[in-house]
Amino acid sequence: MDDSFSIDIKEITDLLNVKVQQFNTVDFIKDDPVLLPHRFHKKQDIEIIGFIVALIAWGKRKMIIDNGEKLIELMGHAPHDYVLNYETGMLAEKAFVHRTFNTDDLDFVLRALKACYTKNDSLEAWFKLNPSESGIKQRIINFRKAFFETPHQQRSEKHIANPAKGSAAKRINMFLRWMVRKDDKGVDFGIWNSIGMNELYVPLDVHTGNVARTLGLITRKQDDWKALEELMTNLQKMDENDPCKYDFALFGLGVSGEIK
Description:
- The chain is mainly alpha-helical.
- The chain contains ten helices and no strands.
- The chain is globular.
């Protein structure tokens, strides 16, 4: 990074810190898919609804929320109990559809979640690292390996992104932000303790990517894992302990139209 950008980044940091304060509030919840896990108080209910809603979090936010509502209804407003008692055949043939995520995909996800909760108290267990490993990328890779031990159709694998193949894994990173960040602002839950906030990566999509490029935080054209690493290198310079908080600022600047 050259000296001129080092000077500019101070102004960018000031701007983003202001926008974090503006958007990281409970007012953010009402129009965002994070609204749905906020309906629950039990840790496992929050995890399950949060995870599945994150998996279907592409398209218009209203559609995501509406389909998330259908999912909660389908699970009898008791996600953990539903998962523990789930058996293939409980879902009607076309019980749930969100874009390309269909009933077969949901059946697999529910069976995989059951496999996790039968042996573990929390989905957090599947994001653990081996002693020689580090980083959120490896956590996601380990999670995918555990998740896909449950028998499934090949088509279902596309719904859980693979950073080892270059994906920015936007939806999993968003879910991890929800579970891990602790800041008492009322948006993120902070119910997981084995992952540090300093490990988290921003859920990079086309909107946050475009804002980040306008601000000079990304030079890479693709919204892939390499672009995400470039972005996080810059955000970590702004706040090494909680770089993911800037997701609120980048997202808010894009949604508000202040930066496109």
